[in-house]
Amino acid sequence: MVKSILPKAKQAFINLLILLSIAFGYGFSRGMSEKDWLEWSNKCLTESFDPSTDSKLKKWEIMLTPGHFIRFRKTYQHGNQEYYSFSLNKLDSVNYLGTTTAGRLRFKTIADDIIVQTYDDPKGNIDSMATALSIPVKNISPERLDSLNNAITYFKDKKL
Asked: What is the reported pTM?
């Protein structure tokens, strides 16, 4: 008889934990200020970026600015740089291709709204525009991805 009660109690406890985490997450996100959203978004982007996909990468920086821009800079071993920037109000969609271990976060804008610049490139500095930016990411759970998408939507819809 004890054997049959234990699985039900365990399942009830798990369900309670799930409900509490959903309620906490809902309350937490509703009570977050713009500064909280910004800090969380930058932490998520920084922790999720996967620099190991490019062996020539020396350093990198990715951030969501207070002005609601995504900025991404890559500096390579020989000093050349690639810089990407776009306003979230020009964002059309965010998609993820991959698993919880590794994948790519793809930002797509309405038109050619992503600024692409190269510096100190042996082929010459180039300024151009793009419609999509694909960023390699690692260790990103569906919940974290959903939360990041909510944060991006928050800033996309927010007027300065």
From this structure: 0.78
